[in-house]
Specification:
alpha+beta, 68% helix, 8% strand
């Protein structure tokens, strides 16, 4: 028997892992810097594998420096770790790295910066330590937490200074101090602008998200009455109908048609007709329960979905609405359709159509 394993190839499964993590990471916030890091993690590990592999070859063949075996072993370990991580990122286990980016970047920073520190220590040199400077600046720029950045930068600079004290430098103390301060300043500036950029992106994203939510809300609301429109009715009713099906509860639908609205429009004008509709909508909004769904689905037509309501209660509600409408310049005709728990799921279109037909039968008898 065939076995279903999800996405086909191992790279597809890794991509699936990444997609799932992105969609659930702190509500899928797209401006989080660790999301950006994850996107480039495979590239970073591939570059580290090549770079440290090249450094290892240089350390084993260099004639100018005599690197110790433990320094070479450490660099070899970093190379292997980067290669293994790159491979793991293309398997379903990639989710482990995606879920723990704080730890991943911190461990990577320690491993990468530790390599030049040990290399300079074994070679008996401290300056110019360009590789160490670049490593400090680069990884301080991608660490997630301020505490990690401060701790990492402080320890790296202290290690660099300890090398200078132990082995001396080829430059003056002042020049060395300026180099150290410049490195710390670059780290601080990078972090400051990175956080400012993230804050700006987050603010822009929040504004766009709010506007999208507002537009989505407005697309489900009738402009005149503030009730749900046809789209809003379908959206809200789908949840209630599904719940009633699961819990074996009845559902009733009332279809209301306003009688006399055309006469109001012809004699008093459309503004007066709109005012009548608004008053009727307010009356409907207060006459039903909070769980009931009231919608305007046409010019003078309203639909009310009544979850957990049987025919008897729905008939009483329909009669009370018909009586209340008499207090306005118009009256309403009401049709009713009911779904009782059974083998078939409730269908909003079917219930609405049946209630509409019932309403027209009532209107025709007048």
């Amino acid at each position: 028997m065939a076995r279903i394993t999800g996405p086909g190839s191992w790279t597809d499964r890794a991509q699936h892992s990444r997609t799932v993590w992105r969609s659930t990471a702190r509500a899928g916030d797209p401006v989080r810097s660790d999301l950006v890091i994850v996107e480039g993690l495979a590239t970073i590990t591939a570059l580290c594998t090549l770079l440290f592999g090249a450094v290892l070859v240089w350390m084993t063949t260099a004639d100018d420096y005599a690197f110790s075996w433990w320094s070479k072993t450490y660099t070899f370990g970093v190379t292997v770790t980067a290669a293994v991580t790159w491979c793991a990122l293309h398997t379903p286990r990639a989710g482990i790295f995606y879920r723990h980016t704080d730890a991943v970047t911190l461990v990577a920073a320690i491993l990468v910066v530790g390599s030049p520190v040990l290399a300079y220590a074994s070679a008996g040199s401290a300056y110019p330590a360009f590789g160490l400077v670049l490593a400090i600046v680069a990884f301080a720029g991608i660490l997630q937490r301020r505490a990690h950045i401060v701790t990492f930068t402080t320890l790296a600079v202290c290690a660099w200074t300890a090398l200078a004290v132990a082995h001396g430098t080829d430059v003056s103390v002042q020049t060395f101090a300026v180099s150290v301060l410049r490195t710390v300043l670059v780290v601080a500036v990078i972090h400051y602008f990175r956080m400012k950029t993230i804050d700006l992106l987050w603010e822009k994203y929040r504004m766009v998200d709010e506007q999208r939510a507002r537009a989505d809300s407005l697309s489900h609301v009738d402009d005149l009455t503030g009730l749900a429109n046809r789209r809003g009715l379908q959206r809200r009713a789908a949840t209630e109908l599904d719940r009633c099906r699961r819990e074996s509860r009845p559902v009733s639908v009332l279809y209301l048609d306003v009688d006399g609205l055309k006469d109001v429009n012809d004699t008093l004008g459309h503004d007066a007709g709109d005012a009548v509709l608004v008053r009727l909508a307010e009356m409907l909004g207060t006459a039903f329960r909070g769980s009931d769904i009231v919608a305007r689905v046409g010019g003078d037509e309203f639909v009310v979905v009544l979850p957990d309501t049987d025919r008897t209660v729905a008939l009483d509600l329909g009669a009370s609405i018909r009586d209340l409408s008499m207090t306005t310049e118009v009256s309403v005709s009401v049709g009713l359709a009911v779904w009782s728990p059974g083998p078939h799921a409730p269908d909003l279109d079917d219930l609405t159509r049946r209630a509409d037909n019932a309403m027209y039968r009532v209107k025709s008898r007048r």
